[in-house]
Amino acid sequence: MTRAGSINALAIGGSSTTGAAGVEADIKTFASFGVHSTVVVTAIASQNTRGVQDVFYLPANVVSQQIDSIFSDMKISAVKVGMLGTESIIRAVSDGLRRWHGANIVLDPVMTAQSDGSWLVNRESIGGIEKLVRLSKIVTPNRAEAENLTGLEIRSIDDAKKAASLIKKKGPEAVLVKGIRQGNRIADVLLHENFKIFSKEMVSTRTHGGGCCFSSAIAACLAKGLQIEDSCKEAECFIDDAIRNSMKIGRGVEAVDPTACLRMNAERFAVIYDVKAALMSIENCPGFSSLIPEVGTNIVRAMPNAKGIDDVAGVAGRIRNAMGTPKSLGIIEFGASSHLARAVLKMMEFNNSKRAAINIRLTDATLAGCNKIGLRISSYDRSEEPQRIKRKEGSTIPWGIETAVKTTHSIPDAVYQKGEVGREPSLIIFGDSARDVARLALRLVPPKAMA
């Protein structure tokens, strides 16, 4: 079967030795959006997270040849232009894109390095950038770059609007001025047909590669057929996630992670797979039915940095006793569990590796079995639950787990509570993975039930 052709985008810019900015960041960003990246290198920056040590600019004819090589062979759906550096390189890129009728050009007029503010271009070449501005679909300068392009001082959203208007008069279809600080928030000002403000909480003031990733994300969305405003909206969400997942790769500023979404998807798959494997082992053991409480059993596992129940995967509808056989009633999905998910989330506050849990029937036999296989056990008494906890929806289990941990002054492997009027007793086993807790629970199945 013949596969459909790829969506290709072109990244034109400098190569950074950090692997976290320039065309390296562009490639990762395009990949995150499912877009194939072609590359034209304009310069090689000897750089680390603390600054730029040197920049070598490629000869203009080499840049021109790279452009010709790509466009003569491939269909390019969008172009992201970043660091150029010299007047001759700017001319080579402008001429090349005009010659090959480059479409959906996103110009990020890179002038300085985020790591230390070092200039990456010849100051006298800034005027030449206007040639590319006229060819662009959208121009994405940060505040300082917009000041250099317009001569305006930008300190507010109104200033950014004025700068965007001046740049738009030079020919692009849209302008997005980035990085306008508003207290603990930061805003980006988009001028297309009208003004649109993207405002969000400031996560970090010093990162490496954010500007490259942001403009690349816009280009990737344009390549996939999105309109300008939708592309900018997607890019805003993408870069916020990339910044929140910034990595400490060196001794200086952190590097944004444009592959965070790919890594997150891989981790989510691994969690689902783990719970599925655990569920299969339970359903293949008829004797497990004797351990299922009246409310049913669930088995869950959380993402490494889970913040809420939507980051915890479990069995929708729980596992029930179906005529002597354990049977799941629904699919495995994130957010499927509420009570057991809250227990895991609270336990992770004390030990982040305790990401999985299973609840089973509390009996003298299961409690004795936990002791026999060497589990650390703790408990809490629901009758001692403070009224302020009872009045707050969803607070009982987190309170119980915290109480159990504080009671033993250690991290327990199992926590039980004997219930109260209208509340069934329960026993929860915690572990590193869903398969681990399933194996422990299966060891508690009575020999007679196994027969």
Descriptive notes:
With 451 residues, the chain is of the alpha/beta class. It has 2 domains: 8-258, Ribokinase (UDP-N-acetylmuramoyl-L-alanine:D-glutamate ligase, 3-Layer(aba) Sandwich), CATH 3.40.1190.20; 264-450, L-fuculose-1-phosphate Aldolase (3-Layer(aba) Sandwich), CATH 3.40.225. It has 15 helices and 20 strands. The longest helix has 24 residues, at 260-283. It is elongated and about 85 Å long. It starts with 7 loop residues before the first strand and ends with a helix. The model has no long low-confidence stretch (mean pLDDT 91).
Total helical elements: 15
Largest sheet: 9 strands, mixed
- Described by the principal axes of the CA atoms, the overall outline is elongated
User: In the CATH hierarchy, what is the architecture of the largest domain at level 2?
Assistant: 3-Layer(aba) Sandwich
Number of strands: 20
* CATH H level, superfamily name of the largest domain: Ribokinase
Range of helix content: 25-40%
CATH class of the largest domain: Alpha Beta
State the strand order across the main sheet.
Answer: 3-2-1-4-5-6-7-8-9
Calculate the terminal CA-CA distance, rounded to whole Å: 50 Å
Strand content: 15-25%
Radius of gyration: 28 Å
Average pLDDT rating: 91
